[in-house]
Amino acid sequence: MSDVTTAEFNEEGKYLRKVRSFVLREGRLTKGQAQAMEQQWPIMGLDYTPDAIDLVEVFGREADTVLEIGFGMGASLVEMAKAAPELNFIGIEVHKPGVGACLAEAAEAGVTNLRVYHHDAIEVLENSIADGSLSRVQLFFPDPWHKKRHHKRRIVQAPFAELIRSKLKVGGVFHLATDWENYSEHMLEVMNAAPGYKNQSATGDVVERPDHRPLTKFEARGHRLGHGVWDLMFERI
């Protein structure tokens, strides 16, 4: 699970821009993670700029691009990138050891279609990603902020849904997953009310985990214990 951003929304759902909206969490890097940061960042790292990046320039080709917000330690993101070499992948994570771990794993897997940001997701989305440029946005297991008084800190709110929609191509998909049923209900409520989206679920609620989202070790353990995971997929129309 990843602390994607410390952005907060007020009662009306307005994004509260703080002087610094996030904290880059340095954490303690292992030797391997530090080495990966040093060796792989020049190859796979994207330095934050307030201007939109040119995806063709960044990846050296025209291809559909998938962006993941808060990839944690990056294991499933690397697995996805390896399994779909025809797609471009961008990951955003504020936790430095996670970025280092992801770079190390990507290098070991020989993945060349992945780029990563060590930055706040909201800021990257707002400024560095061009409107209508993404085929899929992934938000897997964001911090559930399960205490009721903290629900306003949940990243999935109306302005966030609108921001994601603006970055998706028509036909592009916002894919969310959580292992907190209450958060899945909150996500569904926000996304159903968000204009310009269509729920891909035939039953109007959740979908089966799609093949492109790998089963995490944590999730597999949860399945064995009878814990649920809820996937939602909303298409930009």
Average of pLDDT? 91
- Radius of gyration in whole Å, from Cα? 17 Å
Which spans of ≥5 residues are poorly predicted at pLDDT below 50? Answer: 1-6, 17-21
Termini gap = 30 Å
Query: What is the tally of beta strands?
Result: 10
Q: Quick one: biggest sheet? A: 8 strands, mixed
H/E series = EEHEHEHEHEHEHEHEHE
Count of alpha and pi helical runs: 8
Major beta sheet, strand line-up: 3-6-5-4-7-8-10-9
Helix-residue proportion? 25-40%
* Proportion of residues in extended strands: 15-25%
The 3D shape can be described as globular
Q: Which structural class fits the helix and strand makeup?
A: alpha/beta
Detailed description of the structure:
By secondary structure, the protein is α/β, with parallel strands linked by helices. Helix content is 34%, strand content 20%. An 8-stranded mixed sheet has the order 3-6-5-4-7-8-10-9, sandwiched between helices. Strands 1-2 form a two-stranded antiparallel sheet. Strand 5, helix 4 and strand 6 form a beta-alpha-beta unit.
Compact overview of the structure:
The protein is of the alpha/beta class and 237 residues long. Helices cover 34% and strands 20% of the residues.
Blueprint of the fold:
Layout: E1 8-9, E2 15-16, H1 31-44, E3 45-46, H2 55-59, E4 65-69, H3 75-83, E5 88-92, H4 96-109, E6 114-117, H5 121-128, E7 134-140, H6 158-167, E8 168-178, H7 181-193, E9 197-199, H8 217-224, E10 230-236
Parallel strand pairs: 3-6, 4-5, 4-7, 5-6, 7-8
Antiparallel strand pairs: 1-2, 8-10, 9-10
Helix pairs in contact: 1-4, 3-4
